[in-house]
């Protein structure tokens, strides 16, 4: 996880500009971005705006000026889009901002998105009459919030009459502890947590975090993907980029046992290109969270996904799937024979259907939208 606190960002700016090419490029790049942000901000908002829902996202790489594609950021963009459709319910205008002190971007470039991205200080400086603000923050950014905002910004936020901070818990392993969550009370007592997975939306976590907990789910649902039948598939297996060591070992196994199998590690792909790839691939392997987009999205694209069972993300019923292994040792021992058995239309379709049905049980667009509406109605899963 990258560090978000840029201490010294404003120390010796002239020296930085002279000696560091990356800072010269950033300065010139961000001049243009700020100009576009300022013009659009004036068109979208006025100083009398009172109600805002804000989504904070990571910024750009200092060298390339580009954003990094991730399921978490795509999920936030989806939440923004679904929230925008509920304008009559919440009565707020929407804004997406880079996290304080992050390098600026104007729009995401690694996936299709028309959402403009503003600077955090535009939110806290140019909307002086805010009465209501719902601030959605990804879980890994929460611990940096207090140290990355200025005293003036802190005072501005704490003086908003109706301020709600919602922590987007998209990965339970990145969630801050109860102490960090409690530290947000310097800004507001209205703190909530929303989750991407049902496995960590429980009464136990409600008690651990000490704030209301609500289940959002994610945008991943069958309607969002092109389902390709076995006969349309190519002899391709895609690997998640999470574990390089396991990937190297698995690539050697596949090379020895399946010389005609094309092995592709997902890396540096635009999201739309990734979706096209998984629609063609027969197989997918993830060594990450287990029940992640590298597992779910290939399944909704007609593929068969393999993973190691991770109790933090998988519900117990996934243990019944033959492609979800208890440990890596079993995986290495059985994966070759299993692929050989499944690589015909009947067996492939039977296996794929079981995985598909189980994933579809938990990832429904209709339920996702209902869950988001319930949040803005204050109807939390665990209040």
What does it look like?
The protein is an alpha/beta fold and about 375 residues long. It has two domains: about 190 residues, Rossmann fold (3-Layer(aba) Sandwich), CATH 3.40.50; about 140 residues, Rossmann fold, CATH 3.40.50. About 40% of the residues lie in helices and about 15% in strands. The chain contains 15 helices and twelve strands. The strands form two sheets. A seven-stranded parallel β-sheet has the order 3-2-1-4-5-6-7, with helices on both faces. The protein has a five-stranded parallel β-sheet with strand order 9-8-10-11-12, with helices on both faces. α9 links the parallel β6 and β7. The longest helix is centred in the N-terminal third of the chain and has 24 residues. The chain is globular, with a radius of gyration of 22 Å. The two termini are about 30 Å apart. The N terminus is likely disordered.
Task: Give a quick summary of the entry.
With 383 residues, this protein is α/β, with parallel strands linked by helices.
Shape-level CATH architecture of the largest domain: 3-Layer(aba) Sandwich
Q: What's the Cα radius of gyration?
A: 22 Å
Q: Assembly type of the shown chains?
A: single chain
Strands ordered across the widest β-sheet: 3-2-1-4-5-6-7
Binned strand content: 15-25%
CATH class type of the largest domain? Alpha Beta
Order of SSEs: HHEHHEEHEHHEHEHEEHEHEHEEHHH
Low-pLDDT runs: 1-10
Helix content: 40-55%
Outline: globular
* Total number of beta strands: 12
CATH topology of the largest domain: Rossmann fold
* Tally of individual helices: 15
Average per-residue pLDDT, rounded, comes to: 92
Gap between N and C termini, in Å?
31 Å
Main structural class: alpha/beta
Query: Biggest sheet, in brief?
Result: 7 strands, parallel
């Amino acid at each position: 996880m990258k560090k978000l606190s840029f201490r010294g960002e404003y120390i010796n700016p002239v020296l930085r500009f002279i000696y560091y090419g990356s800072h010269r490029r950033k300065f010139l790049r961000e001049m243009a971005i700020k100009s576009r942000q300022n013009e659009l901000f004036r068109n979208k908002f006025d100083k009398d705006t009172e109600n805002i829902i804000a989504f904070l996202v990571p910024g750009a790489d200092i060298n390339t000026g580009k954003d990094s594609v991730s399921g978490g950021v795509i999920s936030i963009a989806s939440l923004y889009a679904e929230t925008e459709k509920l304008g009559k319910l919440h009565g707020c205008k929407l804004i997406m901002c880079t996290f304080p002190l992050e390098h600026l971007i104007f729009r995401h470039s690694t996936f299709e998105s028309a959402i403009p991205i503003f600077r955090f200080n535009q939110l806290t400086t140019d909307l002086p009459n805010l009465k209501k603000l719902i601030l959605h923050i990804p879980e890994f950014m929460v611990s940096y919030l207090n140290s990355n905002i200025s005293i003036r910004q802190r005072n501005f936020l704490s003086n908003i009459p109706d301020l709600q901070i919602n922590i987007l818990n998209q990965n339970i392993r990145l969630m801050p502890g109860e102490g960090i969550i409690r530290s947000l009370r310097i800004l507001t007592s209205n703190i909530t947590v929303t989750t991407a997975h049902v496995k960590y939306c429980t009464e136990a976590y409600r008690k651990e975090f000490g704030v209301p907990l609500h289940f959002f789910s994610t945008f991943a649902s069958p309607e969002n993907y092109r389902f390709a039948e076995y006969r349309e598939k190519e002899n391709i297996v895609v690997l998640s980029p999470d574990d390089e060591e396991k990937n190297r070992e698995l690539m050697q196994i596949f090379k020895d046992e399946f010389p005609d199998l094309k092995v592709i590690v997902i890396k540096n792909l635009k999201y739309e290109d990734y979706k096209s790839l998984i629609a063609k691939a027969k197989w997918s392997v993830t060594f990450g969270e287990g029940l992640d987009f590298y597992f779910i999205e290939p399944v909704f694209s007609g593929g068969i996904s393999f993973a190691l069972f991770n109790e933090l993300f998988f519900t117990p019923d996934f243990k019944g799937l033959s492609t979800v292994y208890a440990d890596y040792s079993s995986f290495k021992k059985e994966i070759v024979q299993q692929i050989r058995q499944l690589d015909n239309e009947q067996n492939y379709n039977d296996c794929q259907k079981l995985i598909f049905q189980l994933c579809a049980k938990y990832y429904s667009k209709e339920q996702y939208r209902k869950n988001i509406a319930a949040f803005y109605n204050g109807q939390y899963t665990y209040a």
